[in-house]
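Interim report, section 4.2 (structural modelling).
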Amino acid sequence: MKSTSQKILGVWNTKTVVAVAIGAALFGVLMNYGGIPVFTNTKLTTAMIIPVIVGAMFGALPAAIACAVGNLIADLIGGWGYWFDWSIGNGVLGFIVGLLPLYGANIDEGIFKPVHAIIYAVACVIGNALAFGVITPIMTTLFYGGELEVTFLQAMAAGLSNTLVLVVIGIPILIILARRNARSTDLKLEEKEEQNI
Amino acid sequence: MKKPIVEFIDFGFQYRSQSSPTLYNINLTIYQGEKVLILGPSGSGKSTLANCINGLNPFSYEGKITGSCKIAGRETKTASIFALSKTVGTVLQDSDAQFVALSVGEDIAFALENQSVPRDEMIPKVQRASEIVGMEDFLHHLPYELSGGQKQKVALAGVLHDDVDLLLFDEPLASLDPQAGMQAIELIHKIHLEQKKTVIIIEHRLEDVLHRPVDRIILMNEGRIVFDGSPDKLLTSNLLPKYGIREPLYIMAMKYAGCTFTGQEVLSDIHSMDLSPFEDKLKAHFRSPVKRSPIPVRDEILRVEDVSFSYGDGDVLKDVSFSINRGEKVAFVGKNGAGKSTMAKLLCGIIRPDKGEIHVEAENYLQYSIKEIGEKIGYVMQNPNQMLVKDIILDEVELALLLRDKSREEIDVAVERALDMCNLYGMRNWPIHAVSYGQRKRVTIASILVLQPDIIILDEPTAGQDYYHYTEIMNFLDDLNREYGITIVFITHDMHLAIEYTDRALVFSDGELIADDSVFKVLSNDEVITEANLKQTSLYTLAKRLDLEPEDYIEHFIAYERMKKDNEKPTS
Amino acid sequence: MKSPLLNLIPGDTYIHKLTGKTKVRTFVILLIYIIMSFDLRLLLPLFIAGIIGLVSLRPEWKTLRYFFIVVAAVNLLNIVLFWLVNPDIGTFWCGGSRTVLISFTKKLFISLETLWYLSIRFFKMITSFLISMVFILSITPSELAAGLYSIKVPYKICTIFSIAFRYIPDIGRDYENIKISMQARGVELDPKKVPLIDRIKQNVLILVPLIITSFDRVGNISNAMDLRGYGRGKTRTYYSEHEEGRADKIFKVFYMGLLVFSAIWIVSRIISPPPSKMWYPFS
Ligand SMILES: Nc1ncnc2c1ncn2[C@@H]1O[C@H](COP(=O)(O)OP(=O)(O)OP(=O)(O)O)[C@@H](O)[C@H]1O
Ligand SMILES: Nc1ncnc2c1ncn2[C@@H]1O[C@H](COP(=O)(O)OP(=O)(O)OP(=O)(O)O)[C@@H](O)[C@H]1O
Ligand SMILES: [Mg+2]
Ligand SMILES: [Mg+2]
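Predicted structure of the assembly:
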């Protein structure tokens, strides 16, 4: 059983390092290629799902790092230059949505109940509000100067689309992944039971 | 007196998540400088044993050890994986997962980097290791510029540093094409001799390993050692078929010919073995008539005419033309990057030819969408996990029909048929995760079959699987072909598969179709074999040594084997 | 799936040949420098240096042009928005004066100060983009990992960068394959043909296998790393980090100097804040 601090900070063995790296790579790929077109030029990016999954399996800090590094990598392979203000905001969001193990959801062991989905949805809203309503605008103003209101509005737009994806796509994916992993412990028993029918 | 390097005494291992031990009662000593092959059916505990030697058990996979295991005199229970990694170098099956760095040089240096070896000491060591495996000209190459065989060489170089005495290979050949596999075996042997390293190989492909001599074979079954002795002893015994391991083809040929062994013969090297006691029997058997089931001539279902294709720069396929008849079984073979998968994607309409035409049932397929072509030609990917999206088998199988807005009744009828065809009906409500890899593969095939395609293309259907699962899948596909007349195209590197299960081979080399003929004709054509990185089977060598025409000999062997199989299976 | 910009093989120009350490350190210090300066006198030299740097890398202008146009357009839109929200913003930044040039309504006008402020901000964004472009084009992921390690980033974080870059092509290939097999089964991905909600559903169909196959690799990769002693020590060395040359020494003098300058600049601004928040020549 992992302790609370391990659920938040993660256990930094080789496996975690690799999982965070794979998560970051997936984030980078999805950010650049995996958008869902909404209107001609607007896309909902599905990349934000990745930190949720890393968080569910390895803890909140690994999720935050996968998200922040993934964002840097996405900018890098996409060719948009570095925008640290957004990376930091994403990292904070990754941390909050990656808190799943803290409230008992455990995708690895197939535990994701409706109550977890509700807490998760609330965490997504809070996370986005904090990350893009507070952190990113402050960072942007700090780095580049400017009008807090406008930056705030832009960040809010990003935050809203993120929340949408995190809830609308995230919950079905988490449910599917949890079901995939569920019962794999008593796998043998089930096979026999069903065969007898 | 030889020095033992691996010493198991009454050893047992139980994974924490398992209710019973995976290894029992292992007593095994391997001496310095030996070359040992470990065989056994899937799940017999070979990898578990290997991971007890290199320390992954219990470092990475928790579990309980009983008895004792000493590596170079050091008890593994108390040694760390890092200490063991200085004595034991491990090369794993998955050449992609093992290549963890961004270039060849860095990957070879990875172990040294972890030991904080200063860079100026590292450079000559990397250079030396890369020279041993012959990759010194590739130090700046990136992983995706290398073939599977080259990646395996890099993995080998990466564990060749200094004091590593013991090299451990867990299925090193699994993902290699025939030529690359042969070269890997030669390389391992060279290192064994020149560097005086102890070598342990775990591998299903016995015939390929025996390309170079081994000192000892250990046969495992259900967590126990059931045989420990010389290769010749094992080959003359009947243990291999008993435990579901494929015998080398030449041994099968000798057994078919009725040769009997006393247990004293030296059989492990086909080039040097004494054939005189068997020659008459083998030749007589070759002259015996076999029923050649003629391939029925049926109407053409697919025709490819002068097709060329490029992804951007340079043609990946150049003027390829061929045709396939209804109910045929065809293999696409050829070296890595020859364009086989590209051809398959073209047939499925995922990409379209730059030049040339493709006709399905005499209609130009360019007029159809991918979705429509999907109802005629189904494409099954190598890794079933890449295709499975639902968590219940039934949902997965009906997905393609739901996406086509078919009526409920129509769906139910088609799904039931597909499930029946794949023997999955009884499991239809099982969660996907609860079934084995082979069964998952069947689920993906069923999910394609619901569309009732005329042709199924399978990309490397058996790669990385052991003989048991391999035969399971291939026999299943064979039945589909026989009973439902479905045309099947395999993309494969495995010549045995091509021999045993297909009528015709299309050989690709650098984007060109260089041969289109029956498998045994292809496999007795030296030119084609070299150009396409294929490899002669031991039957070829056997025929040569008997002064028989290899082509005829292989054909006879295949016909005999099919006849035998048909007799064993009266259902058809 | 190779990015048009990111190169994995070291190039051969002057900047390419610097060590990862030099590149990362220079970049980090330049970032600090950009962030602290709201001053044309500081930004202009860097802008020029950035252009020289970029030209010296001999990049493919065709691909670059696209990114420059998009980034410029986005930032232009941004400053127009700034102006619409608060046309008087320049007054606050330029020391309180207001020189109206054109007046549309009472509230909507263009003042010299606002124009100045918005131009400088735009210029700053472009300079920062330029510098990060030079950095991206000149560094390989291995050098990035080694360079980050040289600025005391823990090596496990550096490994995350190199492993991620290593497996991006593999994941990209998986993604393509999964998309292909789904399309053949009838998943329609053409945006024009299906409503949004279906598009979302169908994306889930691709994401699930992609996530599962990607994370399936983790066990094998980490085993391969453990077996070669990853994580045994507190330090590690880097094969890809070649010896420092003369150019590295020159750069070192340069970036150390810049660091000292930046420190003095920031401290002096904290101790005695200048009358206006940014340098404004017309007051
Ligand atoms: N990490 C693990 N945790 C729990 N059980 C395991 C683990 N690895 C293997 N096993 C179990 O141990 C048994 C032996 O597996 P092992 O991988 O050693 O077989 P193998 O002989 O190498 O088979 P294959 O030829 O398929 O590679 C299997 O029944 C498997 O389910
Ligand atoms: N999506 C792609 N974009 C660009 N080039 C590609 C793409 N897919 C394949 N290629 C190139 O086309 C050539 C043929 O590739 P293909 O995958 O068809 O080979 P293959 O015969 O299936 O090889 P293997 O046995 O390794 O699977 C290769 O040189 C490959 O690098
Ligand atoms: Mg194994
Ligand atoms: Mg292929």
